[in-house]
From TrEMBL:
Residues 410-494 form the X8 domain. The lineage of its organism: Eukaryota, Viridiplantae, Streptophyta, Embryophyta, Tracheophyta. Its EC number is 3.2.1.39. InterPro entries: GH (IPR017853), Glyco_hydro_17 (IPR000490), Glyco_hydro_17_plant (IPR044965), X8 (IPR012946). Keywords: Disulfide bond, Glycosidase, Hydrolase, Signal. Residues 385-408 are annotated as: Disordered. This is glucan endo-1,3-beta-D-glucosidase. Belongs to the glycosyl hydrolase 17 family. SMART domains: X8. It catalyses: Hydrolysis of (1->3)-beta-D-glucosidic linkages in (1->3)-beta-D-glucans.
Length: 495
């Protein structure tokens, strides 16, 4: 899907074999289905610590965006940088080149920037002198004003099957790191390279994931060793979109579904992304590199496609990207990588009208050229919502105004006898979405009584009120129930 190659669709189609078992349709999204992927036996103390980590992760912004420019109608980079800084929760971008105008535009914004070097430059970068010159020309003039955090050497290089590029990939990464070290920038800037899931020869079930033979020992293992030595992540481009069909769409979109059981481990997977990431993890573990971090360099869903294309539209795109954001910062991780957040870059910032290929290739954007959202997923800051044109509504945004008091109003509260650990998970989940949980914090209007049940009641209802008010939005793994009696008390006002 990257802008680096015109045939990105074909390179990504290699991931189609990843977990495509048929699944029946199910009811709309509930928080419980996101919580069901794997349960935790953590104590209440650890759960509270997990909440703090989760909220902190959401605040610092684990969500980034791929900023492609294959278009003739995009706003100037300075306007884009100001928009991301002032109006969105995005605080990191990935570029597909080292465009000096864009690098200058992000100066003094603190937004983290990753630069991608085009594939065709890789053979030259394997030469130390060229790598040193590249760093001097494309990095040093912009540091520290622009917060450059990574240099990505090519994109999906192994999927090109180009022997010259593949043979020079790791040497180029090493040369660039040496150049960074000589410039005293190696502790500030990482070197990595993104891969399509085509690097896997076996991925289903996830616990049996393995890298492609030939590449595994000659290219991937040396690369993983380099990443470990330089404290850099493995970067992958998982796209459930390219593996979905009419039977597993809910599974791909994080919607409620029966799930897929890993026949070897017995683990139940409730979404395709987790299965794809765990297949990569299993492959890393088989080579002895289970300790490396994984970054999602690209993932997304088109809002428009060819008339015969299945599962394409603003609703599906909003469901995938909205649920994706909540999932990767929730702290849940995956079944094989529990209690993790994943730095994730959504593809893409804009629809790009000059990209070749099918209609969908030009319609992966979150925003239109006028900076209005193609659909809403809660990526705009609350202050920006009122001044932004309305678009298609995806999953409930936590920045909506509370529902007004009206006749027939309902509130969502914990069921009598609901397990306290389950209620604590509800608190972790809702607060991790970024919803305002200050009222249940110390000195907050709903802090007293200081009990898990009381705090869960407030946040469960707050979540319910930000949705469309459907019964299933108060399910919470069967721990929630609706009432018509206003639970407000004293200064603690329930929406």
């Amino acid at each position: 899907m990257a802008n680096a190659t015109p045939n990105s669709l074909s390179s990504l189609s290699s991931s189609i074999f990843i977990i495509s078992h048929p699944l029946p349709m199910a009811s709309p999204l509930t928080p419980s289905h996101l919580l069901l992927a794997h349960t935790s036996s953590l104590t209440t103390l650890l759960l509270l610590l997990s909440t703090l980590v989760q909220i902190q992760g959401a605040k610092v912004g684990s969500i980034g965006v791929n900023y492609g420019t294959v278009a003739d109608n995009l706003p100037p980079p300075s306007k884009v940088a100001d928009f991301l800084l002032d109006s969105t929760i995005i605080d990191r971008v990935r570029l597909f080149d080292a465009n000096p105008d864009i690098l200058r535009a992000f100066a003094h914004t603190s937004i983290s920037v990753s630069i991608t070097i085009p594939n065709d430059q890789i053979p030259r970068l394997a030469k130390p002198n060229f790598a040193e010159e590249w760093i001097k020309l494309n990095i040093e003039p912009y540091i520290p004003a622009t917060n450059i955090i990574r240099v990505l050497v090519g994109n999906e290089v192994l999927s090109t099957a180009n022997k010259l590029l593949i043979a020079n990939l790791v040497p180029a990464m090493q040369s660039l790191h040496t150049a960074l070290t000589e410039a005293s920038l190696d502790r500030r800037i990482q070197i990595s390279t993104p891969h399509s899931l085509g690097i896997l020869t076996n991925s289903s079930p996830p616990s049996t994931g393995r890298f492609r033979q030939g590449y595994d020992t000659h290219v991937i293992k040396p690369m993983l060793s380099f990443l470990r030595e330089t404290n850099s992540p493995l970067m992958v481009n998982p796209y459930p979109f390219f593996a979905c069909n009419n039977e597993n769409l809910d599974y791909a979109l994080f919607r409620p579904n029966p799930g897929v059981v890993d026949s070897d481990s017995g683990i139940l997977y409730t979404n395709m992304l987790d299965a794809q990431l765990d297949a990569v993890y299993s492959a890393m573990k088989s080579l002895g590199f289970a300790d490396l971090d994984i970054v999602i360099a690209e993932t997304g869903w088109p809002s428009k496609g060819d008339p015969t294309q299945f599962g394409v539209g603003p609703k599906e795109a909003a469901d995938y990207n909205g649920n994706l954001m909540r999932h990767v910062v929730s702290g849940m991780g995956t079944p094989l990588m529990p209690n993790r957040t994943f730095e994730t870059y959504i593809f893409a910032l804009f629809n790009e009208d000059l990209k070749p290929g099918p209609v969908g290739e030009r319609n992966f954007g979150l925003f239109k050229p006028d900076l209005s959202p193609v659909y809403e997923i809660g990526i705009l800051r609350p202050t920006a919502q009122s001044s932004t044109p309305r678009a298609h509504h995806g999953p409930a945004s936590t920045s909506r105004s509370p529902s007004p008091m009206s006749e027939g109003k309902r509130w969502c509260l914990p069921k009598a006898g609901a397990n306290l650990e389950a209620l604590q998970r509800n608190i972790d989940y809702v607060c991790g979405l970024g919803l305002d949980c200050e009222p249940i914090q110390e000195n907050g209007s709903c802090y007293a009584p200081n009990t898990v049940r009381a705090h869960a009641a407030y946040v469960m209802n707050a979540y319910f009120q930000t949705t469309e008010g459907n019964d299933y939005d108060c399910d919470f793994d069967q721990t929630g129930a609706l009432t018509t009696v206003d639970p407000s008390y004293g200064k603690c006002k329930y929406w």
